[in-house]
């Protein structure tokens, strides 16, 4: 994508205290934006209000400030943007791209499709409006979505075979992450999305949504994850991943090292300004490893 103004974003979910995985995504997205003389926006992705932990958003912002991050524009909260999501949904409804789904989790769990993670199309023939409680799914086309990721390389996914029609508004009335993130990125003019590799397989769905809504497609950078000893993504509950904002240089050093930037050991005891100066002068996205790392 060519754009005179690079605009990136960091979009954490306020579901707990910030941890090292949070910092890695923040550092990479920040350095990408600043190295291109672009803007860096902060978005709190709390569209799923049932998972929001009180005070978590404030803790995230406070930690970022203590670590020397500076964001452009005002912070955005997804929970305050339901009007924009509704407008996007109404556009999809007008074009008959969606359908109501009354399937319960129990019912889907009994189908082979749910075992494979692919929606089996049970309610595809349904039409809106529908009186019964329902989710709303986007009807996908039988196409292959592919894109070039700056770290992972080319990624391909058949929406029909590997995903199926997916939820964009939940049965409980909340908008789904897939719709919210696509609308937010478009309305904020995001030109490149930098985030963890756990969202890599969600990207084709988001690209399809972008096409349905007539949005531009940003570039993508998916970062290697930190894994626990069992090979799973390190969660916020893991004590080893706790982020110590009282030792900002050491925390930033860990993040830079995970991103393959090879920061000198001396920077672990440097001031925040000094480590950021080094990071900006030496940032190379090509150094980011393609494999996840065990903690």
Topology of this protein?
Elements: E1 7-10, H1 20-35, E2 39-44, H2 56-66, E3 76-77, H3 82-94, E4 98-101, H4 105-109, H5 112-116, E5 135-138, E6 144-149, E7 153-158, H6 159-162, E8 166-169, H7 177-187, E9 192-196, H8 203-213, E10 219-223, E11 226-227, H9 248-258, H10 272-282, E12 293-294
Parallel strand pairs: 1-2, 2-3, 9-10, 11-12
Antiparallel strand pairs: 4-5, 5-8, 6-7
Overview of this protein structure:
With 295 residues, the chain is an alpha/beta fold. It folds into 2 domains: 7-82 and 190-198 and 213-294, HUPs (Rossmann fold), CATH 3.40.50; 84-177, HUPs (Rossmann fold, 3-Layer(aba) Sandwich), CATH 3.40.50. It is 33% helix and 17% strand. The chain is built from 10 helices and 12 strands. The strands form 5 sheets. The protein has a 3-stranded parallel sheet, with helices on one face. It has a 3-stranded antiparallel sheet with strand order 4-5-8. It has a two-stranded antiparallel sheet with strand order 6-7. Helix 7 (177-187) packs across helix 8 (203-213). The longest helix has 16 residues, at 20-35.
């Amino acid at each position: 994508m060519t754009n005179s103004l690079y605009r990136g974003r960091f979009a954490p979910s306020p579901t707990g205290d910030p941890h090292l995985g949070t910092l890695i995504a923040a550092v990479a997205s920040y350095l990408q934006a600043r190295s291109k003389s672009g803007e860096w926006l902060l978005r709190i992705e709390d569209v799923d209000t049932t998972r929001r932990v009180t005070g978590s958003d404030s803790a995230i912002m406070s930690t970022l400030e203590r670590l020397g991050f500076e964001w452009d524009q005002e912070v955005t909260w997804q929970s305050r943007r339901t009007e924009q999501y509704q407008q996007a949904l109404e556009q999809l409804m007008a074009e008959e791209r969606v359908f109501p789904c009354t399937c319960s989790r129990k019912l889907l769990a009994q189908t082979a499709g749910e075992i494979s993670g692919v929606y089996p199309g049970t309610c595809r023939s349904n039409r809106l409006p529908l009186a019964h409680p329902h989710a709303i799914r986007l009807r996908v086309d039988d196409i292959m979505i592919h894109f070039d990721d700056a770290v992972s390389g080319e990624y391909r996914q058949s929406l029909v075979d590997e995903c199926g029609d997916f939820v964009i508004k939940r049965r409980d009335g909340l908008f789904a992450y897939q719709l919210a993130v696509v609308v937010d990125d478009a309305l904020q003019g995001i030109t490149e999305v930098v985030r963890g590799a756990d969202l890599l397989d969600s990207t084709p769905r988001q690209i399809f949504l972008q096409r349905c809504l007539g949005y531009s497609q940003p570039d993508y950078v998916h970062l290697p994850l930190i894994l626990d000893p069992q090979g799973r993504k390190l969660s916020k509950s893991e004590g080893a991943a706790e982020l110590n904002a009282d030792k900002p240089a050491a925390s930033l050093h860990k993040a830079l090292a995970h991103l393959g930037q090879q920061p000198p050991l001396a920077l672990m005891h440097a001031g925040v300004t000094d480590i950021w100066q080094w990071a900006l002068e030496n940032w190379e996205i090509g150094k980011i490893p393609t494999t996840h790392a065990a903690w």
